[in-house]
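User: Quick sanity check before I run a bigger batch. Here is a single chain. Can you write out its predicted 3D structure?
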Amino acid sequence: MHLLVNFNRIWILHISVYFFYTAFNSPKVYAPRTKNDPSPQMTWSATALGGAVSTAIMLAATVAEFSFLPTTWNNASHLTMRFIFLLVILALTAGPTFYIAMVDDRPNLSQVPLILGIVQFFISVVVTLVFGIIPSGRMFGDRVAGKSRKYMASQTFTASYPVMARGPRAASIIMWLLIFTCKFVESYFFLTSSFSSPIAVMARTTVQNCNDKLFGSALCANQVPFALAIMYVMDLILFFLDTYLWYIIWLVIFSIGRSFSLGLSIWTPWTEIFTRMPKRIYAKLLATGEMEVKYKPKVCACNCCIS
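Assistant: Done. Predicted structure follows.
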């Protein structure tokens, strides 16, 4: 529950975006058995279910937040309003799929299902971006920066974020924009797009005339769907690891730039840094006018011994 409340945006930015990518590249999974490819409206709608995944994660995080905060009127009313709002969003991002699935096989179909699927997709994209960027504590009133004591439990627990200065905040935003931009572009082409061909083959593959002494044909007949499910999970794990890869790359670049902006060289030997540590501690912490006479002889002697 802590992982849901405190890291719900991490799950949304990974699981939901992975669902968008994978659903678009897995048309054989939800295509009718009599057709090779799904209809355009079903493709739009099935891909748009990524917004429903985002909303489901937010609903689970809201339920988990209920268990952590005191059940006072201020907390309960705020979370209840959010929960009802999320149920409405869930209906908008998942409901059209049921309608499109019911009318998809009808002849002389109008353009209404296609328009509905496109609108559902763009609503899902907006919902995922909003839930992935805006903290849950800033929805329906800012409980993060507000001064009211009625949201004190939320301000000190579920919506507690340190305040950053304008410069570090801008650097942080730019760094994370670069990380997720590179990650989403690279993950689409090298993870999900390349995964579409195995999905197209395995989604329609059936194992016939197999039998086992203990399990009969129930286990071996479902071997291909079981292997495909494992491949989906492994691809999701790699999708998470891609973020860490790009985080390390851009963190190194920003760290080098930060070092040079502070006048430090990245080629400074570590031994030189550590041997200067006692002098730096004395110069920064102990060298005050009141303490100079009392502590300077001892500190200098200590520096000589360490050097």
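Residues 164-264 form one domain.

User: Great, the batch can go ahead then.
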